[in-house]
Fold this protein.
Amino acid sequence: MGSSSRSGEQFTIAAHGYQAAIASVGASLRALAFDGRDLVVPFEADEVRPGYRGTTLAPWPNRIVDGRYSFAGVEHQLALTEPGRGQALHGLLSWTDFLPRAVEADRVVLFAVISPQDGYPFRVEVETEYRLDADGLQQTVTARNLGADAAPWGTGPHPYLVAGSGRVDDWALSLPASEVLTVTPDRLSPVAVEPITAHPEWDFRSAHAIGDVFIDHAFTSLSYAEGVTEVRVTVADGTGVAMRWDERCPWVQVHTADTGIEATHRIGLAVEPMTCPPDAFNSGVDLVVLEPGASHAASWRIAAL
């Protein structure tokens, strides 16, 4: 594509007071603002994307424990892309340069193909559409199985939401989840789904300040109104940002971005709707199985409050 930017080719779309910048590497949401107010933590076009900020997670979100799983009776070993914890993290496409399929003033469609490889011997096309309208930015990720064998699949986004000035500690969170997936403290490997009432520090069903609470967990048993659930992050005057999605994503990972580095520590709240929980390639919980020729789509929306 001839781009000299470290984050790849740049696409800017705008409509109804919203402006979004998408970088081709990882089909990443590089910036999103409403009337000039950031709704996500941005990064520069000529910057190596910080971690997974804004990337598209596919063909799995979150972690596969030890990078090992069995599918259709075959054992697979993935590269350990989170070496400190010995896990395979956030799929295979975060550093892939996506190609444009459609570019319009308020919409961009990018795609990439996962080639059969060690640990994931399946050919899957991944298309992501970013579209702006009066209700914010909608991202839709569509997988198409181009191979001859069924393939395991999961997806989700990785934006860090920004409510306004200050940091995560200063904001209020509304998270309509009645269950949480507990994890081991060292490797964040899944342990058990437990009632949120057993962990009141993570119970944000009634919106309140996040404070100094650490969160890096997946939540489920989400409440829906007319088929849509909503997570809100707000400042004192009620302005902020919301993320909305439907039942195709029955899980959401929330992370307070505790980096320990002043420039990035708790500067945004990661909210990651997911089609399946962590380690779904092993548990099979909500795992999508893409049959040859089949497709699967999931979407989510970010809007200003």
Remarks:
- The chain has a mean pLDDT of 97.
- The chain has one helix and 27 strands.
- The CA atoms of residues 257 and 266 lie 5 Å apart.
- Residues 280-283 form the longest helix (4 residues).
